[in-house]
Model the fold of this input.
Amino acid sequence: MLINIPPTQKRRGQTVLNWITGLTVLFVIGFFLYYVDAYSVNFPFQDDNSLLQIIHEIRKDQGWKSNFTQLFRPENDHRIFVPRLISYLDYLLTGHLNFKLFIFVAAVNLVLVTAFIYRLFRRLALPFYYFLPIPFLLFQPQYHEVSIWALTGLQHITLLLLLACCLTLLRKPTALRLGIAVVLATLATFTHGNGILVFATGCFLLLLERKYKSLIPWGVFMALALVFYLSDYTPGSGVRSTINWAYLPASFVARIGASLSVFPAVSIGASIAWGSVICLLTLPVLLIRFFTSFKKRPLVDSFRNELSAFFCFILLTIGLITVFRASSDLVLENRFKIYAALSSLFFYLFLLDGFPKLRKSFLLLFTGFAALIFVNAYTLYTPEVASKHSRLMADTYNWRQHQTELNNYSTIESSLPFLIPAYRQGYWQVPDLFNGLGELLQTTVQQKDFKPYRLQTQRFLHEGNGPPQFSVTVHSLPLARQHLHDNLFVVLHSEARQKTYLAGTLPKFAGWRRFLTQGTYFDASLSTVLPIEAVQPGEYRLGCLLKKADGQLELVMMQQTVSF
Done:
């Protein structure tokens, strides 16, 4: 027997669901922004150093031609003009570079991208609560190498924002809108290596919309941008000289479906299966829409064309990554999982549009699916994010004390010629995050307050034949992280040389029972690895330093010593 719900009651129920969805969306986005702020440090990580190098070269004042060359020169197979321009503007406005600000800009750009996705969603004319799965899929740390890394955030997320702007402008391409879209697509080309695909995606959308007059100038500017991009092009370190063709299909679909890599036990298999489902359902539709655009038939709804264009960009990007970064193993790189999140997100919109009778089922299915990914992503990746955060914090101390870094040591030697001038001349300002550590350490050593705890240590060669490494592990200590903001460091102190180094540590999730009953997220264990060559020879006493969320420092120095 069917139960008829009165229209007034139905509207009231939809209003309640819409309010719940709105509050949930605000919470998910707000927590993501808090998380990014909590785990970001105003300190460069790896390729971030290149932004300081650009300022170093521009300050030589060799004329506009030299500056132009520096801003557009290739960087590890990319031309990253836009990130460099953003950093240069920051330098002009403040006199120094703020890497935490760049991370925040990328986070704001992601919110703006979500606003474009919401605009696309509204054209489905569905109640707002159907939007609920989308923030769960997007605002999570599965791709933390983008969301909490200054340069990659300015590359990937800024590129997505430029893409969304271009597709919006090209829906109704007047001369002015087309001109603005050309400028934005050109900027996208010089933001990241896949930026030229914004032009290709624009071509796809113009073909679907049958805007052939606009397609001609668009294609001309795409060719010009590509020629300029490829001039003096040099392949980066990530590009493979040989391609393992047998791995390409599985690697391609796995990257598409990599949202399911949050389940470690079935990471690869689940990603391949989910990516295959997405491709099998969307690729035929994209091809049919493309070929029918050449026939004299009624135009497809512009929503479907724009959604198809977004899918086109993601598929082309993943294809480019798969070919140029092919290897003998199937690897799901962290930084490219942002495109997997978008794949799942747009697949949800695709299903809502293509199967109207199943919309409620898709809403329930994807809400549970997205919420599970959201929770698992934070659980799985937060220890890794916390480790990177503590290592960068430790290197603020190591740099201020010794002009060296334990975290970036493999690249620090080649970067010193521009990092040291940047630091001394003030356009790189390293924050003092350990105020009072010197006095605390001096008091502990003078009182010989050394504890009998022992840390497990081991020396080994990196990857079997690389530079020597030193690892430290302990399963339980009196000092332990209690909150997400707490940080734990290994201390190496030489009493003879009066030198101290800090090494960030990798925590472990304490488990759901302890988290729910005690509010403790991390357990008492720690581990770290540091390059021996980064530490000056001598005998060092080991210790542990806890920096609490309120900034309070607690230090324990051991009786145990090691020699390098």
